[in-house]
Amino acid sequence: MITVFTIPDMTCSHCEKTVRNALGNALPDAAVSIDLASHRVTIEGDAAKAEEAIRGAGYSPQRLS
After folding, report:
1. Alpha carbons 34 and 20: distance in angstroms, whole number
2. Any residues with CB less than 8 A from the CB of 30 and at least 6 apart, and which?
3. 8 Å CB contact between 39 and 59
4. Residue 65 has pLDDT above 70, yes or no
5. Cβ neighbours of 9 (radius 10 Å)
6. Are the C-beta atoms of 56 and 63 separated by less than 8 Å?
7. Domain 2-63, CATH 3.50.50.60 — does that match?
8. Is residue 42 within 8 Å of residue 16, measured between CB atoms?
9. Which positions ≥6 away from 35 have C-beta within 8 Å?
């Protein structure tokens, strides 16, 4: 399942790395794509686990799909 999140408070490359690491730890086999300019994260995997991992990293994801 492909899920797209917008993360308004992901604003820099450090934020992107933090989110990518959190998702990698929570869902090591998931495909993750991050577009920092649009604040979007696309993940192929468990959406609930992904959202929990992003929130655990200190960010506020909003699910778009």
Report:
1. 8
2. 23, 43, 44, 45, 46, 50
3. no
4. no
5. 10
6. no
7. no
8. no
9. 41, 42
DSSP single-letter state for residue 43: E
C-alpha distance from residue 35 to each of 5, 10, 12 (Å):
10, 10, 11
Q: Which token pair is 35?
A: 């577009």
> Tens digit of pLDDT for each residue in 5-63?
999 999 999 999 999 999 999 999 999 999 999 999 999 999 999 999 999 999 999 99
Give the residue extent of every domain in the chain: 2-63
Burial 16-39 (b: 16+ CB within 10 A, else e): bebbeebbeebbeebeeebeeeeb
